[in-house]
Write a structure and sequence with these properties.
It is a single chain. This protein is α/β, with parallel strands linked by helices. It has one domain: TIM Barrel. The chain is 39% helix and 15% strand. The chain is built from eleven helices and 13 strands. The chain has a seven-stranded parallel sheet with strand order 1-6-7-10-11-12-13. The protein is globular, with a radius of gyration of 20 Å.
C-alpha cells in the first residue's frame, strides 16, 4: 500500500498493511533531533502518511517588531519564548465593533497556491488545515477571559462574533474543496486537563451548531473531517460524531482513556495521536516508549481507525533517544 491507500483503508475502519502515522515537531525539538541524528534533513525521511496544506494567504504572518508576529486577522503574537505559537498581546474586537471589524478575504487566491502540489503526488493523502477555527479565533480576537465571560453574560456579543467567524470559515471551506483534497482539518482547542473550558452546556449551545455547519459543508463535498482539540473532551464524542467528524486528534492519553475510547467509539471515529508527550516521551525510557507505541498499534490500531502520532507536535523536553525509539517502532511495524 502507498500512503493514500493506507490512510483510506484506516478511515474505512479496515486493517491496512501497517498503521499509518504522523510525527510533527516544535522548532526546538526539531533542532534537538537534528543534533541527535546529525542529519538536518532527518524529518524528510520519517515516512509520514499525511500531507498538509495550509489555507493562509501569502505573507499572512509578518514580524512587526522583534519577536512580535502579526497574523492575517491583525492579532499580534509574542514569540519571544514560544517560537511556534506565542502569546496574544493585543485585543481587536469588542461589543462596540463586533459587527464592523474587518475580516480577511477568504477568496484571496494566494491561499491556495500551494494546492498545486496535489497533482505532483497522487499517492499522498492531502489534508487542508485551518487553525484557530471558531472558539480559538474568537478569543484571539476578543480575549479569552472576555469571551468566556460573555458566553454567560453577553450572548448577543458572542453570537455575533462567532457568526462572523463562521461566515468566513464556510467560504474558506467552499474554496478549499474546489481542489482534489481528501480532508479538511480544523484546529479548535475546547478542553483543558479536567474537561471543557466552557462546560458541555455552553459548548452545545454556542459551539456545536456552528461547527456542525462547517463539518457538514466539508461532508457535502465528499471529504473527510479531521478535528484537533486538546484536553479532556471525550464527553462530547457522541456530539462530534453527530456533527460529522471522521478523525479526532490529538487523543491525549493523560486525560482520555485511549483504549476505552477505541472500544466505545472506534466504529465511528478514527483516532489520531495517543502517544504521550506529557509523560512517556519526556520522562520514560526508550523501552517504555517502544512498549507504549507497540500496544497502541496492536490494540487501538486493530481493524483500522487509528493514525499513530504523538499527542501533539513534540515539545522541547522530550528525550531524543525516546523520540528515536518511537520512530523506530513506527517505521518497522
Amino acid at each position: 500500500m502507498n500512503n493514500l491507500e493506507r490512510v483510506l483503508t484506516c478511515l474505512r475502519h479496515q486493517q491496512p498493511d501497517r498503521v499509518p502515522y504522523q510525527i510533527e515537531f516544535t522548532q526546538r525539538m526539531h533542532q534537538a533531533m537534528v543534533q541527535y541524528y546529525g542529519d538536518p534533513s532527518f524529518a524528510q525521511k520519517l515516512g509520514n502518511c499525511l500531507s498538509f496544506l495550509g489555507c493562509e494567504p501569502k505573507d499572512a504572518w509578518r514580524e512587526v517588531s522583534p519577536d512580535i508576529w502579526q497574523d492575517e486577522f491583525g492579532v499580534q503574537w509574542n514569540r519571544s519564548i514560544d517560537k511556534d505559537i506565542g502569546v496574544v498581546c493585543n485585543r481587536l474586537v469588542t461589543p462596540a465593533n463586533v459587527r464592523t471589524f474587518p475580516m480577511p478575504d477568504p477568496d484571496d487566491p494566494s491561499r491556495f497556491e500551494g494546492f498545486e502540489r496535489i497533482a505532483s503526488r497522487a499517492d499522498a493523502f492531502w489534508v487542508a488545515s485551518v487553525s484557530f477555527t471558531l472558539f480559538e479565533r474568537a478569543w484571539t480576537l476578543a480575549g479569552m477571559e472576555e469571551v468566556l465571560t460573555a458566553m454567560v453574560i453577553d450572548k448577543p456579543f458572542v453570537n455575533q462574533l462567532l457568526d462572523r467567524i463562521l461566515e468566513f470559515n464556510l467560504r474558506l471551506i467552499e474554496n478549499a474543496c474546489r481542489y482534489p483534497i481528501h480532508a479538511m482539518m480544523f484546529g479548535d482547542d475546547w478542553g483543558q486537563q479536567r474537561g471543557l473550558l466552557m462546560g458541555p452546556r455552553l459548548w452545545r449551545e454556542l459551539i456545536k451548531p456552528r461547527i456542525k455547519q462547517m463539518y457538514q459543508a466539508v461532508k457535502a463535498h465528499g471529504r473527510f473531517v479531521f478535528i484537533h482539540s486538546c484536553g479532556k473532551v471525550d464527553e462530547i464524542f457522541p456530539d462530534l460524531i453527530e456533527c460529522g467528524v471522521d478523525v479526532f486528534n490529538p487523543f491525549q492519553p493523560e486525560v482520555i482513556d485511549v483504549y476505552e475510547a477505541k472500544r466505545r467509539y472506534g466504529a465511528s471515529l478514527t483516532f489520531y495521536g495517543g502517544i504521550s508527550t506529557q509523560n512517556t516521551l519526556p520522562f520514560g525510557t526508550p523501552q517504555q516508549v517502544r512498549d507504549e507505541v507497540r500496544r497502541l498499534l496492536d490494540v487501538v490500531g486493530r481493524e483500522g481507525g487509528y493514525i499513530a502520532a504523538p499527542s501533539h507536535a513534540i515539545p522541547a523536553g522530550a528525550r531524543p533517544e525516546n523520540v528515536a525509539a518511537m520512530i523506530e517502532v513506527l517505521q518497522t511495524q
